[in-house]
């Protein structure tokens, strides 16, 4: 089924921006096509101003720069709604006969275990997602939820794409847990209401590796944030102190995937009726024995050692590290060995060579220095 009318959430986020770029490329010359964006005003800017700023940025893919901005803006309908506060009838003006595909990308990416973060994730990632799903039920022709590859929780060995058949209870953090809960709700609600659905699960998302300008990412979170910590520490007085990092480089892996690769797969897959669950992952993960040293040493910090347990007698640098990053990073840095099933995404993108993350890891991380 071909979709030319799309309702997209999260268009200002890392993945959502690039999904928007791919959608615009595919529908800009199709008569009657329309992309509806749920974007809230922010920082004194209307939703239209926020998207226009994104589309006119020098960092957009070159193929977007070649399309006149007014052509793109004419294909966009702005719905100034906040998912956290929207009501079930806010979208009732949309009609089933319009054959609308909903792509839900919006989410908070917070991995710490504080009570405040848990409340945010419960409201923003879970309750708001369930509300959106129910609000779309009267008109949606296909519902697409962008989850995370890590909603599988703690798993060892080969991780296939059928997460929905696993009753998972062991998660590294609330972010993973709530993503999994939404997946299960999407499955049960859509099955009960006979709504076709897809669940797409990106792993760790890095900057672009297909569409120039390469390596760009709009947000420095997850492993970029880890790298940036050491980039900043190396330039302070703390940079002379030693740091003991809990990690297991012999078993842990980092599955990293470029954001343009993710977006292309999502936009292609929505028109493929045989796909229900898809891991948006690399076929070959980066061993932590390679990536960890590069993330730490990017700006010259060398005074560290890898340990099996969080030290009890912390110096000041260690206290800062474990306060800011340890709670978030340790479950991933000290993990068992596993491998994600990447067969579906390779089928969807079989005409695109899979980016070699290991070969380009230095360039991927270098953007931290320029930020």
Provide a quick synopsis of the model.
The chain has 371 residues and is of the alpha/beta class.
Can you describe this structure?
With 371 residues, this protein is α/β, with parallel strands linked by helices. The strands form 5 sheets. It has a 7-stranded parallel beta sheet, with helices on both faces. A two-stranded parallel ribbon has the order 6-15. A two-stranded parallel ribbon has the order 8-11. The protein has helices at 14-27, 47-55, 62-65, 69-73, 115-135, 174-192, 223-233, 259-269, 288-297, 316-333, 343-348, 357-370, and strands at residues 5-9, 34-38, 76-79, 100-104, 140-146, 157-159, 197-202, 204-206, 243-246, 253-254, 256-258, 277-280, 286-287, 304-307, 338-340. Helix content is 38%, strand content 16%. The protein folds into 2 domains: 5-209 and 255-283 and 338-357, NAD(P)-binding Rossmann-like Domain (Rossmann fold, 3-Layer(aba) Sandwich); 223-252 and 287-333, no CATH class.
Topology of helices and strands:
Blueprint: E1 5-9, H1 14-27, E2 34-38, H2 47-55, H3 62-65, H4 69-73, E3 76-79, E4 100-104, H5 115-135, E5 140-146, E6 157-159, H6 174-192, E7 197-202, E8 204-206, H7 223-233, E9 243-246, E10 253-254, E11 256-258, H8 259-269, E12 277-280, E13 286-287, H9 288-297, E14 304-307, H10 316-333, E15 338-340, H11 343-348, H12 357-370
Parallel strand pairs: 1-2, 1-4, 2-3, 4-5, 5-7, 6-15, 7-12, 8-11, 9-14
Antiparallel strand pairs: 10-13
Helix pairs in contact: 1-8, 5-6, 7-9, 9-12
């Amino acid at each position: 089924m071909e979709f030319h009318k799309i309702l997209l959430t999260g268009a200002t986020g890392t993945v959502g921006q690039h999904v928007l770029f791919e959608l615009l490329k595919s529908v800009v010359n199709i008569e009657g096509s329309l992309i509806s964006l749920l974007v809230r005003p922010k920082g004194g800017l209307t939703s239209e101003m926020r998207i226009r700023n994104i589309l006119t940025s020098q960092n957009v893919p070159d193929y977007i720069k070649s399309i006149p901005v007014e052509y793109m803006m004419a294909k966009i309908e702005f719905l100034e709604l906040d998912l956290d506060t929207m009501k079930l009838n806010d979208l009732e003006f949309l009609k089933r006969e319009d054959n609308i595909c909903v792509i839900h990308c919006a989410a908070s990416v917070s991995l710490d275990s504080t009570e405040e973060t848990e409340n945010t994730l419960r409201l923003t990632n879970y309750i708001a997602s369930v509300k959106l799903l129910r609000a779309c039920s009267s008109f949606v022709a296909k519902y697409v939820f962008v989850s995370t590859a890590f909603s599988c929780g703690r798993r060892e060995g080969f991780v296939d794409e059928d997460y929905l058949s696993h009753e998972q209870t062991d998660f590294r953090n609330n972010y993973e847990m709530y993503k999994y809960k939404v997946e299960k709700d999407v499955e049960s609600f859509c099955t009960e209401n006979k709504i076709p659905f897809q669940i797409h699960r990106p792993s760790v998302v890095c900057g672009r590796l297909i569409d120039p300008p390469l390596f760009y990412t709009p947000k420095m979170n997850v492993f970029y944030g880890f790298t940036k910590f050491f980039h900043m520490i190396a330039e302070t007085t703390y940079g002379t102190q030693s740091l003991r990092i809990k990690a297991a480089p012999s078993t842990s892996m980092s599955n990293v995937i470029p954001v343009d690769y993710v977006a292309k797969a999502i936009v292609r897959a929505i028109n493929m009726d045989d796909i229900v669950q898809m891991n948006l992952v690399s076929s070959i993960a980066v061993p932590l024995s390679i990536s960890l040293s590069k993330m730490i040493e990017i700006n010259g910090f060398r005074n560290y050692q890898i340990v099996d347990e969080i030290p009890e007698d912390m110096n000041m640098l260690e206290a800062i590290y474990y306060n800011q990053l340890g709670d978030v990073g340790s479950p991933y840095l000290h993990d068992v060995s596993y491998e994600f099933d990447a067969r579906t995404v390779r089928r969807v993108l079989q005409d695109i060579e899979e980016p070699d993350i290991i070969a380009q890891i230095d360039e991927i991380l270098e953007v931290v220095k320029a930020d």
